[in-house]
Amino acid sequence: MSGLLVDAVGLPLAPEMAELLCALHARCFVGAPGAQWSAQAIGTILAMPATRAWLSSSDGQPGGLLLARAAGDDSEILTFGVLPARRRTGQGRALLHAAAQWSQSLGLERIVLEVAMSNDAARNLYASYGFIEAGRRKGYYSLPGGRVDALVLTAHVADVSDRSQP
Prior knowledge:
CATH topology: Aminopeptidase
Number of strands: 7
CATH architecture: 3-Layer(aba) Sandwich
Order of helices and strands: EHHEEEHEHEEH
Strand content: 35-45%
Largest sheet: 7 strands, mixed
Number of domains: 1
CATH class: Alpha Beta
CATH superfamily: Gcn5-related N-acetyltransferase (GNAT)
């Protein structure tokens, strides 16, 4: 991956940061009505305890983001996206690695996330890290082709961390 990974936590959440994350999130989820989050929603999420955010960048420009929070023994990935033009460049793997390392540092046991059943690229990425289906939310996502189930996936933090070495 060219570029770097920026841990956005610990930075004061200035309105510009929330706006940046909002704009990046919208560009990562183009074509998914209702999937984009407002700057206010992102600011609210980042203000919650035990929540982290990471940005990936390439050529000085943001390329992806991942927001996660600790919930009990789990690390919950709240949102994870990479710009279409930056996919398959290692940025998603770098973001997942950062989240796994953070989760491991907190002693969390599992990483949990949701993914649209129709998102084959993301499902393949998660499968390569050992994520398995733990549940399903019927008609959870509203996509241009209609309602799509969300797969609830889980993996052991140590497995994801071991497989995601950059």
